Amino acid sequence: MTKQADNTMATRVRRSTKFALIFAAAAFAVACGTKDAASPLQPSGAVGRVRFVNVITDTTRGRVNAILEAVPFGVNLTYSQSAPATLPSPATALYSPVLAGARTFVLKRTVDTNTTVATIPFTVTEGQDRTVYAVGGANASSVTSYITTDDNSVASSTQTRVRVVHLSPTAGALDVFVTAVGADLSTATPTLSNVSYQTASTALLVNAGTYQVRAVPAGTAAASRAGAVSINVASFSLVGGTGRTIVAADNTTGGAPLRAFVLSDR
Known about the structure:
Immunoglobulin-like, five-stranded mixed beta sheet, globular, 11% helix, 18 strands, 2 domains
């Protein structure tokens, strides 16, 4: 065998080994699970926990694969879906441990993984939970990010930890009401007042039960609130000892009608 043939064979072996390692890493990410799922990075040092949420308002670019350090973190994610929770069972943890330091999500179109939708750098801090939201995209605008640090400390068995993240550029500042289902807004006190776009509220402790969440433009007169509701979660149940994030958002292509979706935090 000639020297050139030897070099060609060595190159093929290296390529095969590289592809095998990438495949093995991806398989590990999908196969591992439980409440504290193994990280796609298989960290051996200090870690924080990370969650990714798709809030991209573009039907062309909005269905994505989220790749973290060359390993799949979420696949075929549509509007309002989060990862790693949507990975196949048993990898259904709400957050994934990730090695502390500077990290990057690369978002690829699911139907054409040669197309990069966005590159999102973020920092993982030891002991912190962080959510990386991909936002924007309507009217061919850039897809960017909004990143929160999450308080997921344990609530008591009779309470739920609830917060609101405002990611609707159309809505303007909001007054948010978390009430009993059907409660009269004209006599209610805003749970959160004047919440601006790309703001995350502090965590609120709410007694376990069934609630309605409504938002109106900030400062709406009490008598006019019922007719000014722009976002409405008609009924959802809160179980003691858990945590929920309510995300105020535009519709899937941007603009009205506005909507909200609820994320499980623990």
